[in-house]
Specification:
The structure holds two protein chains of two kinds.
Chain A lengths: L3 H5 L7 H9 L6 E6 L3 H10 L8 E6 L7 H9 L4 E6 L10 H19 L6 E5 L5 H18 L10
Parallel strand pairs in A: 1-2, 1-3, 3-4
Chain B lengths: L5 E5 L3 H11 L4 E5 L14 E2 L4 E2 H14 L3 E4 L2 E9 L2 E8 L14 H5 L3 E4 L6 E4 L1 E2 L11 E2 L9 H5 L12 E7 L1 E4 L4 E2 L16 E3 H8 L20 E8 L15 H15 L4 E6 L9 H10 L4 E4 L5 E3 L6 E6 L5 E6 L1 E6 L1 E2 L4 H8 L24 E3 L9 H19 L25 E6 L11 H10 L3 E7 L5 H13 L4 E6 L2 H14 L7 E5 L1 H5 L6 H19 L8 E4 L3 E5 L3 H12 L3 E5 L21 H14 L3 E4 L2 E9 L2 E8 L5 E6 L1 E4 L4 E2 L13 E3 H10 L8 E8 L13 H15 L4 E6 L9 H9 L3 E4 L7 E5 L2 E7 L5 E6 L1 E6 L1 E2 L4 H8 L26 E3 L9 H19 L3 E4 L4 E3 L9 H5 L5 E3 L5 E3 L9 H5 L5 E3 L4 H9 L9
Parallel strand pairs in B: 1-2, 1-13, 2-5, 13-24, 15-22, 16-17, 16-22, 17-18, 25-26, 25-27, 27-28, 30-31, 30-36, 31-32, 36-47, 38-45, 39-40, 39-45, 40-41
Antiparallel strand pairs in B: 3-4, 6-7, 7-12, 8-9, 10-11, 14-23, 19-20, 20-21, 29-48, 33-34, 34-35, 37-46, 42-43, 43-44, 49-52, 50-51
Helix pairs in contact in B: 1-2, 1-9, 5-6, 6-7, 9-21, 10-14, 11-12, 14-24, 15-16, 15-21, 17-18, 18-19
Classes of the chains: A alpha/beta, B alpha/beta.
Chain lengths: 162, 1004
């Protein structure tokens, strides 16, 4: 199953008035998901084959391994206006490339600290393990992240840059 | 007699196609002869396949195309066998190529002739439910895509001839004879569906709303008579209540169909699930005697059908059907399990028809001189389900015994192993190499992007507004051509694709369809055939990850598809031509596991001259089979095993390592290096090999329940068989009770162990033979004696064995009272059963061995939730792993009996030979490369590379060893100077997807 600790740990509490503000507009969150080819992408395919329904807010970028994800890609994604980012790879020990997912995990742990330090909302960055046999788990991750991003509202972090 | 390096395969269904591909890839010329006008067989008629609900056409199409375009496979359609001479190694076969009346060389498959044809004819592909024309093609995705004229229907008006721009219509074409000289023959003619017309009790052919299951399959299909709507024939209404009647033409002694057709329980469940999916108003009920869900992950599918889709199973066999003439509803009367007589109305009845031998079985048997069994199927030899009674003639697929697609594919590869060992000396004597046109140099040219959007029948177009996607894509920069296709993967679209690439001078291609995991190689090959580098291509998944998962929200799904196509187009602009790497192949094999499967694979490979290393963790070879005496059919396993082991031990090409384990492994397809550790002597041996076969087996579940090991009267089937074979003790026992599904189909082991029903029946018959007065009771949930095994179920009942069903919700209890052992449980009819037993026999299931995780991790191959190994594709790659060069067989894959394990082992061997028989193979071009000017020699990439594929050269700069690099990109993500990049996943390529929806690449 998905390491829910990682995906659930970020409980975002937003003041009620802010939620109202957001839901006024017809805004739909757009989430970019980097899925590793061997586990999470295959898990997403399995969700499809099993017709497990989930929110249509995710756009998938296929990468060979979660280890391919440079933290830069995540920051750039937020900078150009994606409302949230998901990086999903194989379960620990299952990486098709032996250890790529461990490198990914380490990078994101550092990135998390950095974001906190410079004052960027950590809740927009998500990390999960989904295997090729976990269609339902993939759908769950997407449901959760979509819900969370909806609560966070549109991404305005880098608005002044643009 | 001189051996011939060519093979004749009769039948172009999935089995014939798989054999053809395996053998063509192993250096043999293949003649694939099909009696109809297109290959694909029954699988091409199916809407979906169980247990994954994969779209049948989608997974079959790439294989059809591959077989159709393989340089060493010659397809002959509309053909008939006339005469056969010769012997194993050298046969002469005369065939009759019946005239198509359309020149297949000239025909482009455009279909104008059929549109204009004024004569209506019956469409057999759609089970006669649709009218087509006298000029027709078997089905739209047919391979080869060639039209033909049905001269029985044709009125000779000449319209087709006048409209055909290719001048392909030839009314005066004559039948042609041809002679094929081949070394071996493979029979793969498949099956015919049982025709229920003669069974008047069901009213088939009389009542319009009684249809056969294959007709219903066509009704479900997007390309079927009602475009995938579930409607009933009499009035086109949605049938809210559908009854499926099992075992029509199966398990039926009155109509000489005594065998079980093996597939009906599962396909019916699938049809019920898909019907519910297509039309939510539908409520299916399945009337069945047993639910035979004996395959891998089948039980989970049944549970999902019940719990998620509300499919109802009623254990009853319907005797007859009446019709209400006003409503055309059907009236079913049946007895429920608790003995009540129930009468109910249904809107539609589906007869789950069984599998018959093909109608040309007797003709084939006479011409080729092999025997049929008593059911009219091909007779096979014990322990070799692919050998017929005539040497050099082999069989695979449903013609050997009714079976599903994965089992047919396994047999199709297994049969290739038989041909390999017969014809290996003449390998590569009659083949031609595939040649591609010279690659067009597109570097420096501005991108000219072609976008192809797939409808996938209605799978995509039923949800996503594909026209809107098309219009959007057409507006994007550099897009010069956009098209939509019913099935982008079909053979006709591949031809179109090639034409458009050349005509429009496309130098980048985007395909928006299904998942690149299955279809990317097909499209990349088409690019190569059009002279484009296969990496100037990007696929985006608007089906599995869009239309299928947003069924309720077409608008949002369309928006998503537009974004995905936009991202792919933006990305493909940054694609460059890449060169693939050539790999030398070490023609040696490593086999892990010395049970029947491992031994069989080792023997087959070594006989063809491949050096084989066989490792076994125990001190002796033989595996679990050492514990079993006979098969259900009465064949002696021990003498078979002994001769197998002695052949392996004598074989000079096999090196055996007993008491040994795999210590570590490195390398890649064609070039593995392993260390084998002898656990006793601690001696280590390093070996080199090109492939790996995993045959690690399974173990018997050791029961903790029912006083096992606590009372000596409680035994397992294995222990019972030993008593029966070595003593006459059974004569002293008055009552033996067997309990099925111990350690199977429960929470801890949620799968069927497949062999236990047969084991129980085998031992029950043995008991009755030795001591007819001993009472034998078998307590079961479903009796799963699939195929011809059904005969023994009947024999057991005839001999007086009593079968009583129990429900998973009313568990069996074993109670010790004084000195007697009693069994107590509630029967499905509600009555309590209490019986005393002298012996209680537990039919224990199979489970994965304990050390399986370490092998899985070492080889980087996955296990499924039940801890059996997970194959690359459940249906069509049953013995391959996703990792190239590693194969799987035997009970490590999932429960199987000995003969099935032998077939799987041969199949794994044949799949391995498609690699080992080549000196050089090409591997992917997705590897890392270093920008020497930017590299500072900091060593980070060298440290993070999981494959030790990076070293420092004499200049102090990182250097990638491409054969070791797998293209994971960890180095690229870690390099502080961005000096190391992965081909096809460069920074610019990934950023371009991120930026597609906003921002721009400038400045990064």
């Amino acid at each position: 199953m998905v390491d829910t600790k990682k995906t659930e740990e970020v409980q975002v509490i937003i003041p009620a008035n802010e939620i109202d503000k957001v839901s006024d507009e017809k805004w739909e969150p757009k989430i970019i998901a980097f899925l590793c080819n061997w586990c999470s992408y295959a898990g997403a395919d399995l969700a499809g084959v099993s017709r497990i329904q989930y929110p249509p807010n995710v756009r998938v970028v296929r990468v060979p391994c979660s280890g391919r994800i440079n933290p830069l890609f995540i920051l750039k994604s937020l900078q150009v206006g994606w409302d949230a980012v998901l990086v999903s790879g194989c379960h620990p020990g299952d990486c098709h490339y032996i250890s790529g997912n461990y490198y990914a995990r380490r990078k994101f742990s550092v990135l998390d600290d950095l974001l906190e330090f410079i004052g960027i909302d950590k809740g927009r960055i998500n990390f999960s393990w989904v295997s090729a046999a976990e269609g339902e788990a993939f759908a769950k991750v997407i449901r959760k992240i979509t819900k969370k991003t909806r609560q966070l509202g549109p991404n305005t972090i880098f608005k002044e840059d643009q | 007699m001189e051996k011939i390096g060519a093979v004749l395969i009769i039948g172009g269904g999935i089995a014939g196609i798989q054999s053809a591909l395996d053998l063509a890839e192993s250096g043999f010329k293949v003649h694939l002869v099909e009696k109809t006008t297109g290959i694909g067989g029954v699988m091409a008629q199916l809407d979906k396949t169980f247990p994954t609900n994969d779209c049948s056409m989608c997974i079959l199409s790439p294989k059809l195309v591959e077989a159709g375009r393989h340089p060493n496979i010659e397809l002959t359609i509309n053909a008939k066998i006339l005469k056969v001479d010769g012997e194993a190694g050298n046969f002469n076969v005369n065939i009759l190529k019946k005239a198509l009346f359309i020149n297949s060389e000239k025909c482009t498959g455009c279909g104008v002739c059929a549109q204009e044809c004024p004569v209506e004819s019956i469409d057999l592909y759609n089970e006669k439910m649709v009218i087509n024309k006298a000029t027709y093609v078997k089905y739209p995705q047919s391979v080869p895509l060639v039209f033909s004229i049905d001269r029985d229907k044709c009125i000779g008006c000449g319209i087709c001839e006048s409209v055909c721009k290719a001048h392909a219509v030839e009314y005066f074409q004559k039948d042609e004879k041809a002679n094929l000289n081949v070394g071996a023959v493979i029979l793969a003619p498949g099956f015919d569906e049982f025709d229920p017309t003669p069974l008047q009790v069901y009213g088939y052919g009389k009542y319009p709303n009684v249809v056969s299951s294959i007709e219903f399959e066509r009704i479900l299909c997007a390309s079927g008579p009602y475009s995938g709507m579930v409607l009933r024939p009499s009035d086109g209404d949605i049938p809210e209540k559908i009854a499926f009647l099992q075992c029509v033409g199966s398990r039926d002694i009155h109509h000489a169909k005594q065998y079980c057709s093996s597939v009906c329980c599962m396909y019916t469940t699938k049809e019920a699930v898909i019907a519910k999916e297509h039309q939510h108003q539908v409520n299916p009920t399945i009337f069945t005697m047993d639910i035979r869900a004996y395959g891998k992950d089948f039980d989970k599918y049944i549970i999902r059908a019940q719990e998620e889709y509300g499919i109802k199973y009623v254990r009853s066999r319907i005797a007859s059907i009446d019709e209400d003439p006003k409503t055309h509803n059907l009236i079913l009367t049946y007895e429920s399990e608790d003995g009540k007589i129930i009468t109910e109305d249904y809107n539609l009845v589906v007869l789950s028809v069984g599998l018959n031998p093909p109608n040309d079985a007797i003709d084939l048997s006479n011409k080729f001189g092999f025997e049929l069994n008593k059911f009219g199927f091909c007779k096979t030899l014990p322990f070799s389900l692919e050998e017929t009674t005539k040497s050099g003639i082999y069989v695979c697929g449903a013609f050997a015994e009714p079976k599903d697609i994965p089992d047919s594919v396994i047999q199709a590869s297994a049969v290739s192993a038989n041909v390999n060992s017969l014809l290996f000396p003449v390998r590569n004597t009659l083949i031609t190499e595939k040649e591609y046109p010279e690659e067009i140099d597109v570097s420096g040219d501005p991108p000219r992007i072609g976008v192809f959007i797939c409808h996938c029948g209605i799978n995509i177009a039923g949800v996503v507004d594909v026209k809107k996607v098309e219009e959007y894509a057409a507006k994007l920069p550099n897009v010069v051509y956009v098209d939509r296709n019913l099935y982008t993967c079909s053979a006709d679209t591949q031809t179109q694709l090639k034409e458009k690439i050349i005509e429009q001078k496309l130098n980048r291609v985007v395909i928006a369809s299904c998942t690149p995991r299955t279809h990317e190689p097909l499209f990349q090959n088409t690019l190569r055939e059009a002279g484009l580098n296969p990496y100037l291509f990007q696929m985006t998944n608007i089906r599995d990850q869009c239309s299928w998962v947003h069924i309720q929200d077409p608008e949002a799904a369309t928006d998503k598809a537009i974004d995905l196509v936009h991202m792919a187009i933006t990305r493909v602009r940054n694609h460059k031509s890449l060169k693939e790497l050539s790999l030398n192949i070490t023609p040696q094999a490593l086999i892990i596991g010395g049970g029947v499967a491992g031994l069989t694979a080792a023997l087959n490979l070594s006989q063809q001259g491949f050096k084989t290393y066989l490792i076994e963790k125990e001190p002796e070879l033989g595996g679990f089979s050492k514990n079993i005496h006979t098969t259900l059919e009465g064949e002696n396993i021990q003498s078979y095993l002994k001769s197998l082991i002695s052949s392996v031990e004598k074989e000079k090409n096999i090196q055996i390592f007993t008491n040994s384990e795999l210590e570590n492994i490195s390398g890649y397809l064609g070039n593995f290096k392993s260390n084998i550790l002898n656990t006793k002597s601690k001696e280590e041996t390093e070996i080199e090999h090109g492939i790996i076969i995993v045959a690690t087996g399974a173990k018997e579940y050791s029961p903790e329940e029912f006083y096992y090991k606590k009372d000596e009267r409680v035994l397992t089937q294995i222990e019972l068989e030993n008593i029966l074979e070595t003593s006459e003790e059974i004569k002293k026992k008055k009552a033996v009770i067997m309990i099925q599904c111990v350690g199977s189909r429960n929470d801890k082991h949620p799968y069927c162990s497949r062999v236990c029903c047969s084991e129980a029946i085998k031992n029950a018959i043995k008991i009755k033979k030795q001591s007819s007065s001993t009472e034998v009771i078998i307590l079961y949930r479903d009796i799963r004696t699939y195929g011809f095994k059904e005969e023994y179920y009947r024999e057991a009942r005839k001999k007086g064995v009593i079968f009583i069903r129990f429900d998973e919700n009313t568990p069996i209890e074993v109670i010790k009272e004084n000195e007697s052992l009693n069994i107590v449980f509630k029967k499905p009819d509600g009555n309590l059963l209490k019986a005393a037993a002298d012996l209680i026999i537990l039919s224990t299931g199979m489970e994965a061995p304990r050390n399986i995780d370490s092998i899985s991790q070492m080889l980087k191959v996955p296990l499924n939730a039940d801890r059996f190994f997970l194959e690359a594709h459940v249906k069509l790659r049953p013995v391959d792993f996703a990792t190239e060069g590693i194969f799987l067989c035997g009970t490590a894959r999932g429960p199987a009996n000995i003969e099935e394990s032998v077939s799987q082992a041969k199949a794994a061997s044949a799949r391995a030979v498609t690699i080992l028989s080549k000196e050089i193979m090409t591997a992917g071009a997705v590897t890392s490369f270093v920008d020497e000017n930017a590299c500072t020699g900091c060593n980070i990439c060298i440290r993070v590379c999981p494959y030790n594929a990076i070293e420092k050269d004499e200049m102090g700069v990182a250097n990638v060893i491409e054969a070791l690099c797998k293209g994971c990109g960890v180095c690229a993500a870690s390099c502080p100077e961005k000096a190391i990049l992965v081909r096809n996943f460069t920074k610019d390529q990934i950023l371009s997807e991120i930026y597609a929806l906003g921002g721009n690449l400038d400045g990064f």
